[in-house]
Batch of 2 targets.
Target 1
Amino acid sequence: MRFINPKTDFAFKKIFGSNQSKPILISFLNAMIYDGNPTITDLEIIDPYLASRVQYLKDSYLDVKARLAGGETVIIEMQVLNVESFAKRVVYNTAKTYSTQLIRGEGYFKLKPVIALTITDFEMFDNDREVISHFVFKEKKRLFEYPDPGMEMIFIELPKFNKQLDELETLTDKWVYFMKNAPSLEVVPSTMENVSEIQQAFAIANETNLNAEELKDLEDRERYIMDQQGILRKGIEEGLAQGREQGREEGREEGREEGREEGREEGIALGMREKAMEIARQLLNVLDNQTISQTTGLSVEDIQSLRSE
C-alpha cells in the first residue's frame, strides 16, 4: 500500500475534514489537545472537504475547522513551509476567529473559546525540544491564568518527534508518528492496529481509494511544495557559492596589493558576508529571522538590521 502525505493541505483536509472523518478528528484532537484523554465526545466539522471542490493551491490558511459539543471552536492548520511572519499569522487567525463570533448587538457573554492547533513541518521554537507547546494567557510574573482567556494556541513541531515504532506508547505518540511518517509506510503498523480511528485514517490515506482527479490534485500540490523548497535551496546554494568565489578573488587582489596573507582571508570573509547579506535581503519576505540566520550564517541581529533599513 501507498499512503498520501497528510502534511499537504489537500491530504490533511481529506483525512481529517471529510464527512466520514468525525471519529478520526475527535481522536486526533483528544490526543493533541488533551493528552489522549477522551475529553471531546462530539463535534461538527465546519465546511467539510468535498472532492469536487479540491484546489491544490491553498486559498485559505485554515485546513480544518470544527465546533465542539461545548461550543468551543478548533481551527487546525498543517504548515509545511516556514514563511515570514507565520507566528503572527497564527495569532491573527486565532483572534479573528474569536472576534467574529458575534454579530452586531450581541453580548460578550456569548463568546466561546477558540483553540488554534498548528502542526508544522519545521521547528518554530529553537530554545525548546518538546514536540508539543501549549500557550494560554497568564500573568507575566506570577503565572496565574487570565479569567476566561478565550484563546489558546497549540503547536506540534514534527521534526522534534524522533520516536520509532517500538517506542510509541500513548495515543499522542501514535498520531504524531502517523503525521510524520505515513508516506514512508507500506502497511498499517501493528502498534497502531488497536486504535480504530488511526486505522480509518490510514484507509482514507490509501492512494487506491483516491479518484483520478484527487490523485492529480495531490501530485500538483506536492510538486508545488517541492518546487518552492527546491527554489529556496538552489538560491541559497548558488548565492553562497558565488559569495565564496567572490571572496576568494577579492582576497587574492587584496593579498597581492598588501602582500599579506591575512588580507586574502579578510577579503574572502568580506565577500562571503556581502553575498550572504544579499541573499538575506531576498528572503526577508519569505522566512523568519531565525531561519534566515541559520541559512546564511548571519546573526539574528544582522537580519533585524536589514529589516529596519
Target 2
Amino acid sequence: MATKRKTMKLRGGDVLIVGEYHDGRYGAPGTPRQKKKKPTKEDMQRVNAANKARLCQCRMIQYMTPEDYFVTLTYRVEDRPADMEQAKKHWKNLIERIRKEYRKRGSPLYWIRNIERGTRGAWHIHLILTGILETAGILEEAWTHGGIYIEKLKKSKYYDEDFSRLAAYITKSQHTREKKTDGTAAKPRIKESSYSTSRNMPLPEPAVDKLRRWKKEVKPKKGYYIAKIHEGINPATGYKYRRYTMIRLNRRI
C-alpha cells in the first residue's frame, strides 16, 4: 500500500508524534489526487522549515519540560558582532561557560538556540535550555555583551502543550514571513540566522506502519487525546498528508 504512518514515541510513550502520508509511488486508494507540480523554491523552503521545526519540537518534548527556560540574549549597540562568524564565537564562549557551571553541579545540559540578525541590523540569540536553580545567575555572569531576558517555557507567550509554537518560533530564518492581519505575508524580519542544538539530544527512530486506506478522520489511540493536528497537500506528489500529536491522558509529567 502507498499509505504509510510514522510514529515517534517520546517521553517513554507519553507523547506520540504521528505523520501519515502517501509515498507517491503507487495509487492511493480512497484519496483524490491533486494536480502534481514541480515544487518551487518557496515550496521547498516551506518544507525544510516545517521539517526543522518538527525535529525541534520532538527534541523539546523529549528533553525539556514546561519548567525549563526560554532566554533572549541581546547586544548593546557598541558590542554588536561584525558578522555571523563573530556571533558564533560569542556563543561558543557563552555555552562553554554555561556547560562548565552545569558540570560542577552534576546537572545535564540540553539546549536549542538560534542566532538572529534583524533586517535593521540588531542581533540577538534565542535560547531554550534545561534549567537549574542557578541558571539565571550563571547566564548573568557568562553573557557580557548586553541584556538577558529569561522566563520559564510555560510562561512564554509562544508556549503550548506540544511545544509546536515554541519550535516554530526558535527555528525562524530569513525565509520566515509572518502573516499580517489581512492574511497576506509580511516582509521578512530576519536578515540571517544560525540554528543549532546540543549534540546530546538524539531522537528515537519512528515506527513505520502501512495503512490499508486513508481515513477521513483521525481517532486518538486508547488512553490518549489529540493535542494538535495539521493537514495539507504535498506539492510534489499531489496527495494529502497529516501530522498530529497525541498525549497520554494519565502521563507522568
